[in-house]
Each structure stands twice: as C-alpha cells, then as structure tokens.
Amino acid sequence: MFEIPQISLKNKVSAIEWQTRVDLAACYRLLVLHGWDDLIYTHISARIPGTEHLLINAFGLAFEEITASNLVKIDIDGNIVDPDCPFEINPAGFTIHSAVHQARHDDMCVLHVHTNETIAVASLEEGLLPLSQYAMFALASISYHDYEGLAVNDDEKRRLQNDLGNANFMLLRNHGALTLGKTIGDAFMHMYDLTRACQTQLQIMATGMKPVYAPQSIIDGIKAQANIVHTGTTGGQKSWPAMLRRVYRSDPNFAT
After folding, report:
1. Are 103 and 162 within 8 A, CB to CB?
2. What distances in angstroms separate CA 161 from CA 61, 92, 122, 134, 228, one per listed residue?
3. What percentage of residues in the chain have a pLDDT greater than 90?
4. Measuring CA to CA, how many Å separate 168 from each of 35, 38, 118, 164, 202?
5. Could you tell me which residues come within 8 angstroms of residue 177 by beta carbon, excluding any fewer than 6 positions away?
6. Average pLDDT taken over every residue of the chain
C-alpha cells in the first residue's frame, strides 16, 4: 500500500523522450509548489516529439511522487505501450486529454487543473472578464465547454474539440481549466496566466466596488503581444529553465 514500484528509464529511452519525461515530471511538481494539485486527480499530458505516444501520470500517485521514470507512456487510444509498466492511468482524465491531442496535433502539452479560482470563474455566466493584464493574455485565445459530468463518455470528445477550436485556454464550466502549449513550458505559462487572472477577478469582485474593464480594442490586439511574451526564446521557453531550477532546488529526485 505504501511502496511505490521503483523503476528507472534513464538511458533506456531516447534522449528526446527522456527530456520530455523530465520536463513533464517537473511540471507536475510545479503544480504542487503552486498549490494547483488535487490529491491524485487532474493531469498533464505531453506528446513525445516525433512519435504518436503520450506521457501521463500514473493513477494513484500524488504529484510530489511523480518522477521522469514513473510517467506512463500510452497511445492515443489510452493503451499502455510498455507491457511491463506497473502502473495504470485514469480513464476519466485520459478522455479529455486524448480529445485535445487528437484535435491539436501540433500542440505538445495539455494541462488540466481543478483549482478553486478556475472553477469559480468557469462557473460564472460571464466567465473571465477583462480586469487584469493576466486576463488579457487568456482572453486573446479562450474557449468554454459546458459541464457533462465525469469525463468518461467518448461522445463528449467531439463536443469538447468543437468548443476548443484554436484556443489555447479553456474554462470547463463547473469543472476547472485547461491550457495547451507547443511546449510543456508554454502550457505551464498559459495556466499561470489563467490562474492569476481568475484569482484577480475574484478579488476585485469581492470588493463590491465598480471595476474598470479594459477596452475590447486592447484585447483584440494583445494576442500578438502574448505570443512574444509567453512563447519562443523570449517567453515560455525563457522562463522554463528558471522553473526547472526551482523544482531541482525543491527535490531533484523528480528527474530520476
């Protein structure tokens, strides 16, 4: 009950797969550091570059227990690739991630959380409002998906894909939030912006005072600015090494 199967895949998989495993394990640990984890629930998945295989967390492990080696490699249908893998995955979590990866093949990473702030804003009829700079980044590329119960129904995939469209941010009504990225670092930074936007909105609403909304013209023009801030050499990938260093300082065992 208390023993986690110990495996090591370092030097047993390709260099690109190992780096993906390290980055993804780091992202799971960052969710713990930011208080975004939810016991053993929610997920981050990543496509191994150059393959049709995905990596996702082993169901039953707390996020602070996830390492590069105990991430589970699956195909797009949720089948575990390694027959000797001692872990299982959460089928409900995979339904959402498989739907997104099928529709958005060029995006490497899908990050899904159940934080109080994102659930609260997702459950408002107005959704996310233009009340902060963080909100501007998200509003430049946001979508919504209505709640359909636990995500175990394959029929929901098509509706989720249609609702997502080309957006990089999604608020799941009564459920939480989802972000995508060309890299794991980009998906993380998108979730950082969305979470901060939701936190700020709730704090502003709690004052009971009349808020100042940013004009639509600013929202319409900020997408190009957001692409500079959070992607490429000046954005998500510039901040990602700093995030990796933070995780290494916290617990270097994530990279084993």
Report:
1. no
2. 28, 16, 18, 25, 26
3. 75
4. 22, 22, 15, 8, 22
5. 112, 113, 115, 118, 122, 169, 170, 171, 191, 194, 195, 198
6. 91
- How large is the greatest C-alpha to C-alpha distance in the chain, in angstroms? 59
The helix (run of H) or strand (run of E) holding residue 54 is strand 54-56
Identify any residues that bridge with 176 across adjacent strands, giving them in sequence order: 172
Quick one: how far is CA 256 from the chain centroid?
A: 22
Report which of residues 64 and 221 the model is more confident about: 64
pLDDT at residue 4 in the model: 87
pLDDT tens column, 210-256: 999 998 888 888 866 665 655 554 456 778 999 999 999 999 999 99
Say which residue the tokens 């967390």 belong to: 57
Pair type for strands 142-145 and 169-172 = parallel
Between residues 212 and 154, which one has the greater pLDDT? 212
pTM of the predicted protein model: 0.92
Q: Could you give the CA distance from residue 197 to residue 190 in angstroms, rounded to a whole number? A: 11
Indicate the residue type of 73.
K
Average pLDDT for 4-22: 94
Helix, strand, coil abundance in the chain, percent, nearest 5: 45, 15, 40
User: What is the side-by-side order of every strand in the sheet holding 72-74?
Assistant: 72-74, 54-56, 43-47, 109-113, 176-181, 169-172, 142-145
* 110 touches 100 (CB < 8 A): yes
